[in-house]
Design a protein that fits this description.
There is one protein chain. The protein contains 2 helices and 4 strands. The protein is an alpha+beta fold and about 70 residues long.
Length: about 70
């Protein structure tokens, strides 16, 4: 019985790890294939999906501009 519970727990853990990897996308600013959190921003009237790094840079640039 303990073996079955262990196997089920292991399968659930592997499934959660695979799901948490997320899908890949191409950043609209740096044109690199990324995984992780993606942000949607409107830049010059066009909606772009951008990666977390580019989003932070864009946010910092906006903070500098005031």
């Amino acid at each position: 019985m303990k073996k079955i519970i262990g196997i089920i727990s292991l399968i659930a853990l592997v499934a959660m790890l695979l799901i948490s990897c997320g899908e890949t996308f191409v950043c609209g600013m740096c044109d690199q294939e990324k995984t992780g959190k993606k942000h949607t921003e409107e830049i010059f009237g066009e909606e772009l999906t951008i990666c977390d790094d580019c989003y932070e840079g864009l946010k910092a640039l906006g903070d500098l501009a005031g």
